[in-house]
């Protein structure tokens, strides 16, 4: 379903999510802060013209600029407001009726060289109904007056933003005797007249007065909370003011989570080149496929007419060439990237804001846990953190994180703190897995490094190009990439200490511990020296990778948040492998990890530790303070989980194939969610099927998971070609990759220059 004109939707339709969050139809509304409002309206003049309800909107609007403003102006008179720091002027002009006086004031802005306001908000009717006791003659005169004002508003709309605010409904039961004649029937008649006249006047004109009709929908939900039945409650006023700010400011400020009224971003030079590359790949693959099909038909078995026997072809079906595999992969990737672009860059599909409720988070969690338990199978091996178990661990964590993101649960601090542990657990596995590999295998070759770096970064590099986003935007991949290089450097630097060498001499174990202590010291120093950290990553070319919004603060924050957990993973791997080598643990099928007594004590301590951490995380009151403690204490729950999962033999011997399947594509799921499951770079939700939230989630989730699985296969296929085992061929590939990134940097510089 096409998104359509999001500005028109923002001004005319929407619904409440819960009691306080307004959701425009098809697009996302940004919540403007005071500083953002000032930056948008700098050197601007805004005018509100109308009655007491427009005055309410005026006050709600200026409170977005300065929250300290008090409603102390003259009740039935003009009220000026000025913010000298940003040169913003906002005026309220008291014209409670659409009459000659209002017309004269509007006309004065259309004549000569008089400075015109940048934004004009007009609306009035209830006074006409009240003064003339709801007579039909008053309605007829109202139509005549609007007809005379409409051309003037159209003229102003050529250079200014002009909004006509329709009259909100009243709560008739609460109206005083002097206002009983103001009925919703009369208000509808006045609104209908205004819309018909304003639309007819702009039929043959490019300029158009924007009809602000959404306030009616908002008032229908909130007018019962009105103090007098006529004037709007605070929620309505604030929502209307925020909509007005979005309509005008989104195209100027371009907030990520404000898709309403934002034009589609133009294609960059790099995006155009990528589009041409994928198009050529698709064409090339189709040509090669046609050639192979024709060759196959020529060599296909045919019947000998004389003997009546079938002749077999001399040539068998040719093997698939490397070029064909490459083109096939890029062909599929091109189609997938087109879907990415259409979902989150083109204004083709709708986007909506997230809205958190406990049920939207916890019900899906229970559902997937039941599914996961249902698909229980025996493991091939019963070692601690075996492959099936780590895949299962990644899988259920990834599904929980996905539910956390789509439900907007980050606003609920206890959930946020538990999700932080899941992210830390991923990094713990990074430390554990890579340390174990290097320690056991002793393989520090370039091939291993390139394979890991390619698999981690391929999708993100493609998305940076196609979606025009910096590398650091996909923060988790830079995080695991840097930590992999740190683990590699720690173990590969002289002296290289591996298990084989350490078995010959126990002193090497102390050498390795010394390396780990040096690593911990460096981590500790950098975590408390932001300046040193930022200097390291501000040098070119690191700055090109780790800067976001012109600085590396976001990168420092992300790195600092889980700074110790990779070290904890490495240390756990070292201790576990040492115990395993000395046969101090029992990993047989069905056997407890230690003796029954030790196992029971450790299991009890683990359960208590796990629950204690959860109680602490659930009682957190301040996110900043809890984030400060998180790097040091997150390992408690991680280790507790590992022990609970592995000490009982029967628990260690089974795994969930359902979770393990998702675990194998967890990285792709984490990255793909940014654009084809969520929307607006994770700030909102993609809407493929509006009006049916559950069906929409089912359809978008199915496509999202299929795409993630397909990208995982493409990455694996390309890794075999791009990163070959032969060192000479690998060196040539690395030179090609260096050339690719040099070209990317060159075009990026050209792109930045053209933008400036």
Broad structural category: alpha/beta
Largest sheet: 6 strands, mixed
The level of helicity is 55-70%
Assembly of the depicted chains: single chain
- Low-confidence segments, given as residue ranges, are 301-318
Strand content: 5-15%
Number of strand segments:
15
Strand adjacency order, main sheet: 4-5-3-6-7-8
Rg is: 33 Å
Q: Give the helix tally.
A: 29
Overall number of structural domains: 3
The global form is: elongated
Integer average pLDDT: 91
Report the span from N to C terminus.
Answer: 35 Å
What is the fold's blueprint, element by element?
Layout: H1 6-12, E1 14-17, E2 21-24, H2 34-41, E3 45-50, H3 52-65, E4 79-83, E5 88-94, H4 100-110, E6 119-123, H5 126-131, H6 136-156, E7 161-165, H7 184-201, E8 210-212, H8 214-222, H9 234-253, H10 269-298, E9 302-303, E10 310-311, H11 322-344, E11 350-353, H12 358-374, E12 376-378, H13 387-407, H14 413-441, H15 446-466, H16 476-492, H17 499-504, H18 507-527, H19 530-538, H20 542-546, H21 553-561, H22 565-581, H23 596-618, H24 623-646, H25 649-652, E13 654-656, H26 657-664, H27 666-676, E14 678-679, E15 684-687, H28 693-722, H29 727-755
Helix pairs in contact: 2-9, 3-9, 4-6, 6-7, 8-9, 10-11, 11-28, 12-13, 13-14, 13-26, 13-27, 14-16, 14-22, 14-24, 15-16, 15-28, 23-24, 27-28
